[in-house]
Amino acid sequence: MSVLPEQSESVALRFPTGFVWGAATASFQVEGSTTADGRVESIWDEFCRRPGAVHNGDTGEPAADHYRRYVDDVALMRSLGLGAYRFSVAWPRMADLGFYDRLVDELLENGIAPWATLYHWDLPQSLEEKGGWANRDTAYRFAEYASTVVSRLGDRVAGWLTLNEPWCSAFAGYASGRHAPGVQSGSAAIAAVHHLLLGHGLAMQEIRAHAPNTPAGITLNLFPVHPATGKPADLDAARRIDGLQNRIFTAPVLQGEYPADLLADLAPYGLPELIHDGDLETISAPIDLLGVNYYRAYLVEAGGEPESRSEWVGAEDVRFLTSGHPRTEMDWEVQPEGLTELLVSLNEQSPGLPMYITENGAAYPDTLTDDGQIRDTDRITFLDGHLRASHAAIEQGVDLRGYFCWTLMDNLEWAAGYAKRFGLVHIDFATQQRTLKESARWYAAVIERNGLPADG
């Protein structure tokens, strides 16, 4: 049975032929089965046990029970017309990758292209006990893991992504400690940045060795950064935040260097000493695609009391301002125009670089009605606006080749627990009942049309 609603609108904004329409998830957020088939403990298993670390003490068990229900979940994907599913492989499952064999085969049997992310934050706890990403050796262990995974799945995966949002792994994990592993050290965070990037470069070598014809790259969470005024202090605040959020990753990967201003800013945290001969050549090896995760933009000004648990190493005194846009339940402003700005800017930096939006979505307080529906019109408005922004970027010459909605299904939203719902599919976590939201049907219609009507 089709899940599509009646559609009478003509298609005014058509996306390019072959545009990839997908949805994304992450292993720890959806799989559950945290002790099955030899899985070892991750930093998030340990972090979830800490009092107050995760909303209401939520854990990765059972999450959305995707490990056991993947066949039904793939059937849901097919009913929506998804052309691709972006999932992450759990490094703690390295001893037994059978689940991913089964998942990939099921996707292919249903006409859905598997897109695999090698690292979406679930570092094995045993490696964290040796220093985690602050330890250079972890980059080499990651390369070994990548070799194992790609040699196993590389004949069937349509696209590879090395890392998801290394900013979060480094700064939320090692600077503020708001995410696993919960470390609070500016020096450890900067070390983690460099070692994550080194791990990316080493993993790209393994992908080239085992799946040379499969497109591969990295996914970064990027934000346009604007100064509140033209005052020199505000301009410098924007420079510092743009450096810590965006350029610290894009410049090494795309240009093979850390910006000079960042090297100077971060010298007290040891960044120059972390860079060994050959590192930047490894990090900047050509990628086939850039994955872009976009949720909002930043408006900043200088001044304010430094935060005690700040992600902003060396810029703790910068204040983040609101600009009056509507907000999601994550308290993030809805700014679709920032996506066009970001994509165009990236294209100016690296002309012709193929890009995919690998995450974009919104959490809202979804409510089941008496007739069993979730009429999430706010999410539809969000997605519609960002798809129009994506189309505007294409019209301005950006080689945007796909869009992966975050997320396929409600899940464990990291430190926010199960309280924040991003999914196209509603999950009753007590029963694991799946219910398509109105946004899922709306997205299915967009996919079927490969475009949008004249008005949202």
TrEMBL record:
Gene Ontology cellular-component terms listed: cytosol
Catalytic activity from the UniProt record: Hydrolysis of terminal, non-reducing beta-D-glucosyl residues with release of beta-D-glucose
GO BP, sorted A to Z: cellulose catabolic process
EC number: 3.2.1.21
A Pfam family reported for this protein in Swiss-Prot or TrEMBL: Glyco_hydro_1
Active site, renumbered: E165, E359
First-tier enzyme category under EC: hydrolase
Keyword Hydrolase appears in the UniProt entry: yes
Residue positions binding substrate: Q29, H120, N164, Y295, W406, E413, W414
Superkingdom of the source species: Bacteria
GO molecular function: beta-glucosidase activity
UniProt keywords, alphabetically: Carbohydrate metabolism, Cellulose degradation, Glycosidase, Hydrolase, Polysaccharide degradation
Family indicated by similarity: Belongs to the glycosyl hydrolase 1 family.
Protein name, as recorded: Beta-glucosidase
Organism: Actinophytocola algeriensis
